[in-house]
Amino acid sequence: MLNIGGPETTKDVFYFLLRLFNDRDLLRVPFQRTFASWIARRRTPILQEKYDEIGGGSPLIQWATCQGKGLIRALDNISPETGPHKYYLGMRYVHPLTEEAINDIEADGVERVVAFSQFPQYSCNTSGSSFNAIAAHYNEPGSSGLAGIDSIPPPKSQTGKVPRRPGTIWSFLDRWPTAMPEFAEVVAENIRHELSHLPPTVNKENTIILFSAHSLPMQIEVSATAHAVMEKLNFALPYRLVWQSKIGLGRWMGQDIASALRGLARLGQKHVVIVPITFTTEHVETLHELDIEYCSDLAREVGMVSVRRASAPNDHPLFIQVSFIAFSLSY
């Protein structure tokens, strides 16, 4: 189960950022190691403050662990012939790292592996980076694939390299939301839940749905995901696709969510449901950016009455459907 991970405590923030800015699939600049160290130190206190406001750390790994346990229970039930099954977490920027997960897989003698990207839509910067880390691990043993360095020391329990297992069969799930109708149904159900909590006097049919996406995934796949969700809702509500989490001075996808909310407020819109469409778990970009910066602070600033945010899939029972993983194991 591949993801970027998130710092579980504020003391982990610097090393998380150091690895992130050393990732040449995400960012390529001259003197990258020097730049990564400088920008990580500069941004660490800013991000630490955000984590303090959501409980002191990211819940991403906790949610991923819940999802992994649920996936294994479902796989054991629907595909016992490919068992026993086991999940491994491979995080790009925090422990357990992708390369550590591969070491554990090899030490356990696993015969078949499904590299399951937790990014619903494909991006060279996210899914691609994780897949490149797997390739780097085999092509350059000991490499993290991050500008030639491993920014986080391995845990004390790590005993070093294990023998390569060239006979292990790998499958890769690099994007999947429109191939997994359960994902769209979970998102639609979470939207219905938020609509049900609007004041009874609100005309729900005029409530705007804002699908909020990170700018890294492929735009056409993000749009297709939003369309699949609206199909589940019979296109009964007005909706827009907006973009979040801009950093730096480079070009970003638009319209950004802040300007969208301000524009809707100027048009007299008072009720909005924000829907994160490119994430599978809660983390700082949902719990702080969407919940605090937009649903609370910006909504109050522009005079909106109710700006609610639909939950990420997390451990929703319908989301833990693994027929497509079972298919990957069976061929």
Automatic annotation (TrEMBL):
A GO molecular-function annotation: ferrochelatase activity
Key words, A-Z: Heme biosynthesis, Iron, Lyase, Porphyrin biosynthesis
GO biological process: heme biosynthetic process
This protein's pathway: Porphyrin-containing compound metabolism; protoheme biosynthesis
Keyword Methyltransferase attached: no
Family label: Belongs to the ferrochelatase family.
Name of the protein this chain belongs to: Ferrochelatase
